[in-house]
Design goal:
two-stranded parallel ribbon, alpha/beta, Rossmann fold, globular, about 210 residues, eight-stranded mixed beta sheet
């Protein structure tokens, strides 16, 4: 399996790259500063490029079987990386006829009930609204894409490796919810989902157990 990781130099991206190599995948790691990634392996290709550049993203995705996106950015709402980056990834996947994407979002995009999201509740923390709305736009692009997408809606991410001790839930937050997850466990789940396809065209709530 040949996969591409967008956001490869972030804490979850590094875990994805490392674990994907351990699992025997051929990996492309994409980013502006991707050569800062201090991982060398014969199964790893570092691809320097700009996320908003159509040609860069098109050529990066070319030849891949699946896309894993953990793109980030500032959290104050001024950074459109999460939404416009996702829009470009989706467009270039379609041009390359690549159907599978597993992407990282935020907890607020999970359901509160059948009509509303968590982010729409009055008691949702106001400081999380700007980045939450960016995740909402990314989710809307995925939902309307026609691709085989999974949107992993993460709580606070701890910069630690995998433990295997986590729980998931389709479209809703898991219970009990500890509101945190290790970057290594997040990466582990995303790679397992890429193999098992248990949450295609769904959001996933995840928490340390």
């Amino acid at each position: 399996m040949k996969i591409i990781v967008f956001g490869a130099t972030g804490q979850t991206g590094i875990q994805l790259v490392q674990q994907a190599i351990w699992k025997g995948h051929t990996v492309k790691a994409f980013g502006r500063n991707v050569f800062d990634l201090r991982i060398e392996h014969e199964q790893l290709e570092l691809v320097k490029g700009a996320l908003f550049d159509e040609d860069d993203v098109y050529h990066a995705i070319k030849g891949c079987d699946a896309v894993l996106s953990v793109i980030g950015g500032a959290s104050d709402g001024t950074d459109k990386t999460r939404s416009l980056g996702m829009k470009n990834i989706i467009a270039q996947m379609k041009k390359n006829v690549v159907q599978r994407i597993i992407a990282l979002g935020g907890l607020g995009i999970l359901n509160f009930d059948e009509q509303q999201l968590l982010i729409d509740q009055e008691d949702y923390p106001k400081e999380y609204l700007p980045v939450g709305n960016e995740h909402r736009k990314a989710y809307d692009y995925l939902k309307d894409s026609g691709l085989d997408w999974t949107f992993v809606c993460s709580p606070d991410i701890i910069n630690e490796g995998p433990t295997g001790n986590y729980i998931t839930n389709k479209d809703y937050a898991p219970s009990p919810n500890k509101y945190r997850i290790n970057a290594g466990d997040l990466a582990q789940f995303m790679l397992l989902e890429q193999e098992r396809n248990e949450f295609v065209k769904s959001r996933v709530g995840i928490s340390a157990s």
